[in-house]
Amino acid sequence: MTPRAALVAALLLPAAASAQTMRDFSTSRQLHGETRLIARVEYGAGTLRVAPASGSDLYRLAMSYDGERYAPLSGFDAGSGTVRLGVRSTGAGGFHIGSRRQLDQRAVVTLSPSVGLDLTLQLGAAESDLELGGLRLTDLHLTTGASRTTLRFSRANAGLCTAAEISAGAADVSVLSLGNSRCRQVAFEGGVGKALLDLSGAWPSEARVRVQMAVGSLTLRLPRDLGIRLTLDRFLSSFPTAAWTRRGNAYLSPGYERASRHLDLSVSSTLGGIDVEWVN
Predict the structure, then answer these.
(1) What's the CA angle centered on 228, arms 222 and 233, to 5 degrees?
(2) CA distances for 188 relative to 54, 82, 128, 191, 243, angstroms
(3) Which residues, other chains included, contact 2 with Cβ-Cβ below 8 Å and sequence gap of 6+?
(4) What does the domain layout of the chain look like in residue ranges?
(5) 125: closest CA among 101, 151, 96, 100?
(6) What would the pLDDT profile of 220-232 be if each residue is shown by its tens digit?
(7) What value does the CA radius of gyration of the chain take, rounded to a whole number of Å?
(8) Residue 70, exposed/middle/buried by CB under 10 A (0-12, 13-18, 19+)?
(9) What is the DSSP string of 4-16?
(10) Which of 46-60, 92-106, 164-178, 189-203 has the lowest mean pLDDT?
(11) Contact (Cβ atoms closer than 8 angstroms) between residue 57 and residue 29
(12) What local confidence, expressed as pLDDT, does residue 35 receive?
């Protein structure tokens, strides 16, 4: 082999070896009379999809992951009704955003809509599509890092949710039809990035939403038929209140008195702009 050919071969060997580190993993559990599930999903990098399960699955995970830097997370405790799913870092080289293998990681998690669900999602540098509509959600805790996340509730929650807490770092987050979560208390905390909060959907008769945005842009999509009582705590931010009615230290949305459902909305923004989109 000539020196040039040997050099080319040496350069190609790491790429060939890397291509062989992607591994497949799957796990699932069938329903066995459970009425409640505490689910913890941890996903550091790649593409993640979460959706309601079909058939008799309590939960199911199917994924392809980078075997050099990650290992599967899978464990169910029947006594507490807790499952832990996803991937954990093995500490081998850390995460490099330029790594094609980690960007190629993909996972699909499905969860039963037949049981009460306490759901925690901890996401890193991931692109996530989280469809929670139709699940029997009781509590939600979502934390994202440098990610792009879409959280949607395309159908109304089959039960009532006590609280949802959403915390986003340097992220692009869209929350769609949040009212369909049927959560009585919602807290959203944004760091640096862009956030869209769509407050349409089947809210409980009385609900509270607290929004805190540090640095970035915030868009609020507000349904016209929802009576909103708005309080603002803002610094170097803008909020278009021209169409609202001032009532003490709060603002009431147009048609507030006639609305059949009411929402208390608190908005705090440090640096950035706030846009409002009205929807029917």
Answers:
(1) 95
(2) 30, 25, 17, 10, 25
(3) none
(4) 132-280
(5) 96
(6) 999 999 999 999 8
(7) 22
(8) buried
(9) HHHHHHHHHHHHH
(10) 92-106
(11) yes
(12) 96
Q: For the chain, what is the largest distance between any 2 Cα atoms, rounded to a whole number of angstroms?
A: 85
Contact status, residue 210 vs residue 232, Cβ threshold 8 Å: no
List the structure tokens of 105.
């990681």
Tokens, residue 276: 């409002």
Contact between 60 and 110 under an 8 Å Cβ cutoff? The reply is: yes
What is the rounded CA–CA span in Å between residue 118 and residue 63?
22
At position 72, the amino acid (one-letter code) is P
Q: What pTM was estimated for this model as a whole?
A: 0.87
Residue 179: strand, helix, or coil: helix
Cα separation of 46 and 8, whole Å?
Answer: 30
Burial class (CB in 10 A: 0-12, 13-18, 19+), 154: middle
Token duo for residue 95: 């995460």
d(CA 240, CA 254): 13
Distance CA 28, CA 131 (A): 19
**Residue range 150-174: average pLDDT?**
94
